[in-house]
Fold Phosphoacetylglucosamine mutase.
Amino acid sequence: MPIPPAVAKFADLHPKPAHVRFQYGTAGFRTVASVLDSVLFRVGVLAALRSKKLDGKTIGVMVTASHNPEQDNGVKLVDPRGEMLDTSWEGHATVLSNAQTTDDFINELDKFVQAAKIDLSKPARVVYGRDTRPSGASLVAALEDGFKALGAEARDAGVTTTPILHYLVRAINTKGTKDSYGDDSEEGYFLKLSAAYKKLVATRQTPSPLIIDCANGVGAPIAARLVEHLGDSMPLILENTSITTPGALNNACGADYVKTSQKLPPSLDGRLQPGQRGCSLDGDADRLMYFYLDERSQFHMLDGDKIAALVAAFVVELVKTAGLQSQVKVGVVQTAYANGASTKYLSERLPVRCVPTGVKHLHHAAEHYNIGVYFEANGHGTVLFSPATQETLRDYQPSTPAQSTALEHLRSLNQLINQTVGDALSDMLLVEVVLAHKAYSGLEWDSLYVDLPNRLVKVVVADRNQFKTEDAERQLISPPGLQQKINELVRRYDGGRSFVRPSGTEDVVRVYAEASSRAQADELAFRVGGLVYDFCGGNPTTRPKEFI
Ligand SMILES: CC(=O)N[C@H]1[C@@H](OP(=O)(O)O)O[C@H](CO)[C@@H](O)[C@@H]1O
Ligand SMILES: [Mg+2]
């Protein structure tokens, strides 16, 4: 079947800007919003094709640039089980987005449809949402033209969070089956989470109020609705909720600000009291960072690694108490950015795997455990219960009241946790459940282990693509000879660790370093940064001053 003429007609309305090259990367397409119109249209077409290829299963499309500045935007596709787009299609997305003229685009499309054996007569179904960015509405209009061009049945989920969009995709595709993921509506999502949360804390004291920094993004209206559903069971105070103030999104607030600057958002100064818990969401509410001030008002961050440690230990304990330890093996997945102290803490208790950066790698590795806990240090993560484990939890006959209670808790956790993708609000409730059960304050949680001081540095190089890594990105194999020099530097530092990899989302190379003291971690990072810069022939006049 030839490409319907409507595709070319609509494509003419969305010309590709000259001299821009797009790439479907770790987080889909992401760049300044002003150049994205053609990309959105073409992604609309691609989503419809993906649905046709999968017999009309619903595909999700999320328009967001997450923690990036407000003027950026982006788009990513969600596969039928609520997971990220299959990697084998990422390259096709890139090729289609870069076809210059309408004719080029139709040619590429035709080639792709033939090669992938897509039956264009099949139905196509999509569901799409966007964050609060001002550029969202017009980009969604371009996306909708892509759907129309192929006659896809399209459902608008409106302004919503990335994890809700993932939830909806899974809920729509499992509707009416024995694997039903929940009602396929935002309301269904809130009911599922709040009911599970209330069950889990039913016998616990109401916690002290938690402050949520909503990053002035879509997390604000969504958290406000969660508040209504939680009622008295969880006192939440929402901050940074100005979604219509120009420039406010992610500006000096949000999970990425907290992680990279290791500081309290200035807007929370005087609001967060010593001893009180606070947390930050990012711009699309799929990342979560916790923090608290000690009695001297010193800021302490509880990042994705701390969340993983807290949650994994709790799940292991429940599995044991339920008497399921021989059938249900719990494991953790991290990346090289995980703090060495967290890896040590976790490895002493359960299996830990290290995989390359990017949620899809963590997610897939976590699927290999019966219960897989994965978190990136930046606060993106979730817990996956394998299908077999869900059956075990359903059928298991406990033999004591203690076993029965632990089993009920595991069943509720399986409901509480958004298993399609990291979800800041679901993860926040999960953390609150564990804190309530352990009667931990932020301080006690923080004391599970002490973070090794660490430093992340960006290095601008002529061509980051010459950087190739192995061993889950912990070793460089190219440029040749550089890894040896890094090793020589690292050896000089007590508890030193450092690795270098090309970023998948920015045109930079990242250097990570940790050591037993702050000064040493900084020094090691700046030495490795300088080494990388010079090794790549960086211009001495623009060499960053802090590099040693
Ligand atoms: C050090 C770091 O935080 N890297 C981030 C960042 O990837 P880079 O490939 O390092 O640019 O963005 C990714 C997508 O959001 C996220 O998965 C990852 O953790
Ligand atoms: Mg995000």
About this structure: The chain has 18 helices and 19 strands. The longest strand covers residues 72-78. The CA atoms of residues 315 and 482 lie 41 Å apart.
